[in-house]
Specification:
With 212 residues, the chain is of the alpha/beta class. The protein has 10 helices and 5 strands; from the N terminus they run βαβαβαβαβαααααα.
Length: 212
């Protein structure tokens, strides 16, 4: 059972998400809020696996909410669900600690699949969003390595590339014909080399520095 919390200020959308999640086997909606402040007030009492977070919220923005959640625990899995697909917002969300980025026109089945992927360790993004992220950093000139001595092995680059594309650990393992535990081993080494502590930081840094 994947426990999901929702932060969405639009009542109709919030209710629709609750109905979708509660009506799907293997998923449970444990809470739904109209703002980040309400979530933060109750987060310690929640048993939550994935948080669906809008960006444009009354009071604190979703991106600020991500930062505050990550200060409490880096283990929170936060999936952005928004109408906005501007490059700067996408990068800010990922760099702040979001595990994935989806837009609200994502079909229900795809949304449920993305929640499951995030829960299993992936970084779900639609191909449209992933392409915009890559194009954003190319347009900025991608400061490669930024003076750091980052030396990823060919296999580590393949594993990291799978994450950048939004694949789960299992999907990466299947595509490379290795075990999920081997994928986790590679990511531990990748995190050390990139000096990061989360998947979203690894994705942001890998794209920014042209590593994949």
């Amino acid at each position: 059972m994947i426990n999901v919390a929702i932060v969405e200020d639009n009542y109709t959308i919030r209710e629709g998400l609750e109905i979708l999640i509660r009506g799907t086997d293997g998923f449970k909606c444990v809470a739904a809020y109209e703002d980040c402040e309400s979530l933060l007030d109750e987060i310690d009492s929640l048993s939550v696996d994935v948080i669906l977070m809008d960006i444009d919220l009354p009071g604190m923005s979703g991106i600020e909410g991500i930062k505050k959640l990550k200060l409490i625990s880096d283990d929170y899995v936060i999936l952005i669900l928004t109408v906005y697909d501007e490059n700067e917002l996408i990068f800010d969300a990922l760099y702040s600690g979001a595990s994935g980025y989806l837009i609200k026109k994502t079909p229900p089945a795809k949304l449920l699949e993305a929640i499951k992927d995030a829960y299993e360790g992936g970084a779900p993004m639609t191909s449209h969003i992933a392409r915009k992220v890559v194009d954003f950093f190319k347009s900025k000139g991608s400061i490669r390595h930024n003076g750091e001595n980052i030396d990823l092995t060919p296999r580590e680059k393949e594993v990291l590339g799978g994450l950048v594309e939004g694949n789960s650990y299992k999907a990466i393992a299947d595509s490379l014909n290795i075990s999920v535990e081997t994928v986790r081993f590679h990511f531990r080494n990748i995190y050390k080399k990139l000096h990061v502590h989360s998947q979203s930081e690894a994705v942001a840094k890998a794209i920014r520095q042209g590593l994949v």
